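Discrete fold record:
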Amino acid sequence: MDLKQWVGIAAGLLTSISMLPQLIKIIKEKKAKDISILMLSILTTGNTLWAVYGFMRNDWPIIITNFISITINSITGYYRIRYKDR
């Protein structure tokens, strides 16, 4: 792999885990009323389209990093709905 690929992988991984601190906070505090469902929906839709694009290009770093994002965002959405009134 060349430097461009490593930079792309690093960028993808950092972007993918960017919501992880928020998810951890939600789980610890059992509160999520300030999290926007619309934002999570838009973000997850965008990640899904990126993953589809990755499949179309057979680009595994794009596919994997966006599936990580989709997973974290979906779990965050689940807890947002579960803890909406707290």
Summary: The domain at 3-82 is CATH 1.20.1280.290 (Monooxygenase). The mean pLDDT is 94.
